[in-house]
Amino acid sequence: MNKCTPTNRVRNHLAPPFSDLDSLVSQFFAPARAAVAASGWGGAASLYEADDRLHLEIDAPGVNAEKVEIQVENGQLTLTLERTLAAEPPKFVYNERRFGKVTRTLDLPDTVDPDTIEAKLNDGVLHVSIAKRPETQPRRIEIKQG
């Protein structure tokens, strides 16, 4: 029995300052296990904030840029990567490498601007970055007489 369980419940209930980011990360990485199980490879991913941007990096060894598709629709970023075998595959004696498509979908937070998405594939890593929107400042509204 874990003696920390009640404390964890209280902490989660109080919505820590990073709960939105925690939720975003949890939502994004949850389907990864299913993707790995279905295709045999899944592209490990990292999600972080830096330089006023949200950054997503996905391992994509053996994937060509032509086999990467990135779409934004209804507040969701969908990435599809495909690792293919040669047209004339060799007669394997032994093979641990996996091939196929992997699709990952991320609900974009309201704090980013989907029109600023940039992507590059370098050394087997797909890097996607999205600019964060400037924080809106509260403003006082003048009330007019009459």
Automatic annotation (TrEMBL):
InterPro entries membership: A-crystallin/Hsp20_dom (IPR002068), HSP20-like_chaperone (IPR008978), Small_HSP (IPR031107)
Matches recorded under Pfam families: HSP20 (PF00011)
SHSP domain segment(s): 36-146
Domain of life, source organism: Bacteria
Family affiliation: Belongs to the small heat shock protein (HSP20) family.
Name of this protein: Spore protein SP21
Source organism of the structure: Botrimarina hoheduenensis
Name of the coding gene: hspA
